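Posting this for the archive.
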Amino acid sequence: MSRRGFFALAAAAAGAVIQDTGRADRVYDAQRAGRSKEPITALDTDAGIQAIEKKLRCSCGCGLDIYTCRTTDFQCTYSPGLHKDVLRLAGQGKNAQQIIDEFVKQYGEAALMAPPKHGFNLAGYFVPSIAIIVAGFFLVRTLRRWTRDGEAAAPASPTLPPNATPAELERLRRELDRLPG
């Protein structure tokens, strides 16, 4: 082992020993660890509550549904409050549609992960598909035109020089036979 490798190994071992001497049961700076978690209840993991939260958008601006935001982004301060609102409404005996309607009444249609399928919102469902079909049509049409133009421009077969005499053709054959390859 080289001297450089020995010192690198020794430095790594010393760093591991120094790192392990701290107390493992205490966080140095609790604020850096994120918000503290509250105790989990049965409603937090209820499939019905999760299904409702997956239909509602978190208002923090992340673009995720409430369930995904509260279970993946522990820095978000909006999703726990929205989760509590869902639990409060469910505790009042409201069903899934009534909870969703309550969120729409309070926050508008922006609270939904997908717009309702009626009225002008139908354009959001159909316009992208129609645009893809129209773009595909124009792409195929353009490619066919390019290939037709390319076929018309390229000669179909090699042509002989106009007005070539048999002596000139024989001389051309001899020259071509002398070429290597």
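The chain has a mean pLDDT of 82. Residues 71 and 79 are 9 Å apart (CA to CA).
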